[in-house]
Amino acid sequence: MDGLFSHAASSGDDSEESVPLPELIHSISVPVPVDQAFEGFTDYIHLWWPVNVYSHYGPGSHVSFSQGQLLEESEEGQQHLWGSIVDLEVPEHIVLDFSLGMENFAPTRLAFEFADSGTGTAVTVRHGGWARGSAGEAQYERYVRWPEVIAYYARFMGAQG
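The structure assignment produced for this chain is given below.
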């Protein structure tokens, strides 16, 4: 009976007519200069990324930027690709094709921007490039937790609150 109404559009329509989902944007401030903020984000991600909450392998693994990729490595040395760097301008921004946990879909576009705020550095996360239809809705739903993740980074860099 599932095919009875196969000519009707489904609610998970993946056609070009589906409405694109908005880019997720979240900003935080860290009390260090731009170059230190960038370094803390990229070179020390293994110290602040919450692998106990958001990871492929779980506690004991670590995350790192290596050879143009964002990878997670398990305690046993297995690696899981989270994303590939597509644009890097040290210390202003890093842009990734990102697919963590959604490897069956085309990667999304994830950007981290670092800008002098006068009293430190404003760090902005921009996540977009969602697939159309139900695939994009699944991606969007999975990645709405950036405020929580980036808060770990902010605390690591000495931000209050």
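Interim note for the steering committee: The helical segments are 34-42, 45-48, 133-142, 146-156. Residues 108 and 129 are 5 Å apart (CA to CA).
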